[in-house]
Amino acid sequence: MEHATDLSTERFLQALRRFISRRGRCTDIFSDNGTNFVGAKNKMCELFDLLKDQRHHDAISKECANERMQWHFIPPAAPHLGGLWEAAVRSAKFHLLRVLGENPVCQEDFSTLLVQVEACLNSRPLTPMSDDPTDLETLTPAHFLTGDSLQNIPEPDYSTVQLNRLSRWQLVQRQLQDFWKRWRTEYLSQLQARSKNWKSPIKLDIGKLVIMVDGNNPPMLWKKGRIEELHPGKDGIVRVVTVRTSSGLFKRPVATLCLLPMEGNSTNHNEADH
């Protein structure tokens, strides 16, 4: 997530340069086409005008050619082709705007918040690292960027402290904590909704890695565990399981557990269908 001070080609290319400097050169980049913003033209006319400008497209293509990268604009009037990244960006922006509210924020504080929000998004578990029943490590988007999972510096919980008693740094961390609670709750709810909508529900097997819904986890910390024992009811349906975590064994209802998103893909369901 990059902060641009205005909607111009020059600022866009500067953001692209920062991206390359941090993440390295990539071979292909995919983005929206300007015509996808027709419906929002009244509210986003500057962005609309920038993205539909042929000179802007030419400048991007030239810059990418110099870096040996190829820029792909998805077809006009087809925003669904960018469904996965559109959903991620929309969710992040939705909660970020509500966390910031009408409060003024300086550029340095905003840049700090953006980077930490990016880390939260890239910390989400995707799939188990191994089939070892004692291994609770998961593959995350951060592994593709840095080769390892991301770690957060522990901070006190500022959610109960009055805003006027917080320093500027503490206020940024309060905003991060508020964003984390909002975004994580929505993300886990989406994972649970996928479970309910599967036509052929995934069978809960012993040893399967799950995310445990816990509202007290600090940013970037996901409580994970492996199913140790199933407790079927009289009708044979499993509604309660015993989960082994790094803290020990816990008996939890299935409704408070989330299967990893890539685990859902293994059931031959198309991600776009959800």
Give the arrangement of secondary structure elements.
Blueprint: H1 9-23, E1 28-31, H2 45-52, H3 54-66, E2 70-73, H4 83-100, H5 107-121, E3 127-128, E4 138-139, H6 141-146, H7 168-197, E5 209-212, E6 224-232, E7 238-245, E8 248-253, E9 257-259, H8 261-265
Parallel strand pairs: 1-2
Antiparallel strand pairs: 3-4, 5-6, 5-9, 6-7, 7-8
Task: Provide structural commentary.
- With 274 residues, this protein is an alpha+beta fold.
- The protein has 2 domains: 77 residues, no CATH class; 191 residues, SH3 type barrels.
- Helix content is 40%, strand content 15%.
- The strands form 3 sheets. It has a 5-stranded antiparallel sheet with strand order 8-7-6-5-9.
- 15% of the residues are buried.
Taken in chain order, the helices and strands follow as HEHHEHHEEHHEEEEEH
Main sheet strand line-up: 8-7-6-5-9
CATH topology of the largest domain: SH3 type barrels
Which geometry do the CA atoms define?
globular
Which CATH first-tier class of the largest domain would you pick?
A: Mainly Beta
What are the main properties of this structure?
274 residues; alpha+beta; SH3 type barrels; 2 domains; 5-stranded antiparallel sheet; two-stranded parallel sheet; 8 helices; 9 strands; disordered C terminus
